């Protein structure tokens, strides 16, 4: 792709921002995009998968479970249907590595579809703790749920809510929050030509306004001592450094945490903010002319204070005795692997909710946990699950 296919205002803007680096940057649009897949460690270890992989794989240096692949179509292989890996843009894998959730924590992926980062977070949590994956767009939330199911994730609840509604329910609840914000998508121009059609300077400003609103909601849901990671797949300072500059000025109890930068990852640029805030260099930029991947921006922040014990109400088992009896009979004769979680009946459907799952009253819940099955009455007064 030559620069003549790019929006003229975008070319002018990037030339002004990058100056001496602009030529190297624009040269990447004439190169083939790189492809990656991330091994699902909930089902197979990277070392084991390398022994059975039909393709030659090259490690992605900033993600221990990520690999580049070339001249292959892994999406058509049975391993993909079995959930052994997730096809993901390489730079996008860095975001979850920065948040680094631990097993047992309460984690929110606020803008989760299609699920690449959600499934990566769940694997890092080893399916333990509580992960809420939210997507505001109804059409996109279906793909999110399908990917979570395909990869065998059991500690995740999927909702289709606005950030405001969630912030009313989960005030200071989460230990860690990821805001992979909707953006102008400049970093995906090489990968997705459609992103170019929607780009304009006005669109950049609208995205920045949306990002400020989402971050304000995320702040309300972050516990004291908690970690918030903000990311985009765009180059625009208005959506990156300037958003973080605004956020830190607005919420003075938030502080930037330095992100380790190796393997071509660059610091954020202080003089691209209105205040020339020096510690903006703690943020990270992934540029296509510095590494093998598309464009990304990542900032890691912490809310000052001591972590407090949450004393809210959790979901309790509501399964009727007759359904529970049939469930136990079915499990004893059919499935040997014990299923963890709080059993909960939604009508005739039985789910295993994550342990210590908070009450979800009033929320649009798309997937409340692991779907065990449906309880049906059959002939001769028998039942089946």
Indicate the radius of gyration in whole angstroms.
Answer: 22 Å
* Percentage of β-strand residues: 15-25%
Mean pLDDT: 95
Largest sheet: 10 strands, mixed
Domain SAM-dependent MTase RsmB/NOP-type: 1-304
Family: Belongs to the class I-like SAM-binding methyltransferase superfamily. RsmB/NOP family.
GO molecular function: RNA binding; RNA methyltransferase activity; S-adenosylmethionine-dependent methyltransferase activity
Protein name: tRNA/RNA cytosine-C5-methylase
Task: Give a brief description.
With 385 residues, this protein is an alpha+beta fold.
Characteristics of this structure?
19 strands, alpha+beta, globular
